[in-house]
Amino acid sequence: NAGVTQTPKFQVLKTGQSMTLQCAQDMNHEYMSWYRQDPGMGLRLIHYSVGAGITDQGEVPNGYNVSRSTTEDFPLRLLSAAPSQTSVYFCASSLLGGGGNEQYFGPGTRLTVT
Amino acid sequence: GNSVTQMEGPVTLSEEAFLTINCTYTATGYPSLFWYVQYPGEGLQLLLKATKADDKGSNKGFEATYRKETTSFHLEKGSVQVSDSAVYFCALSDPVSGAGSYQLTFGKGTKLSVIP
User: Fold this and answer.
1) CA A58/CA A112 separation, integer angstroms
2) Is B24 exposed, middle or buried (0-12, 13-18, 19+ CB in 10 A)?
3) B78 interface with A at CB cutoff 8 Å
4) Can you give the pLDDT at residue B101?
5) Which of A6, A103, B100, B102 could disulfide-link A92, Cβ–Cβ 3.0 to 4.6 Å?
6) Which of A21, A37, A66 best tests the B interface by mutation, with the highest count of B CBs <10 A?
7) How high is the pLDDT of residue B2?
């Protein structure tokens, strides 16, 4: 199993550009989520999904869109990049069923917006 | 709402020293508690977890006990190694009803550096 994969690993955007961060998992996990990690802030939840066709907002959803057309894939779209979106983005997945399940994290995408 | 507070870093220790990283939480229900570790340039990986009061999670010499009375989940290791240098995150998931019950709430992270 590859686990959770993310592409690209690094990305530089100009303000106003759009892009999609890719996330895929091969563990047949129902739950998938996106976090951003900023210095001194820990990880904050952007969006999450409990299955194909179902998504919901997390703590910091503004400026981001998601969709879940398959169990495996959960792309994150930046609509119009802003310098405040400079961050490291992590995708994670887990089984459903009680809240005590381990979440598996991808290696991250480091995004810089100039 | 839910929150996790962990001790500020960075923490620098000599090899074979004793490690404690404090973590306290606030939750509306009966959460599961986790410690995740992030090695340089990598994603997070689960270190240990506990799903109910008085449970002890352990892995790779690290331990943490779920203390409901003090709402704490402190991470300890008796003898740290250089290879333990990483950022450690305390987190909780609160199994209240609804799809959001699987969300992890993280502390801000504690950077540990172990010197030979």
Assistant:
1) 22
2) middle
3) no
4) 57
5) A103
6) A37
7) 85
CA distance A60 to A51: 20
What gap in Å lies between CA A12 and CA B37, rounded to an integer?
27
Number of residues in chain B:
116
The structure tokens listed for A103 are 């979440």
Residue A25 forms contact with B (CB below 8 Å): no
Q: How confident is the model at residue B97 (pLDDT cuts 50, 70, 90)?
A: very low
Residue A83 has phi, psi (to 5 degrees) of -55, -30
CA distance B89 to B20: 13
Contacts of A93 by beta carbon, 8 Å cutoff, 6+ apart: A4, A25, A27, A29, A31, A32, A33, A74, A103, A104
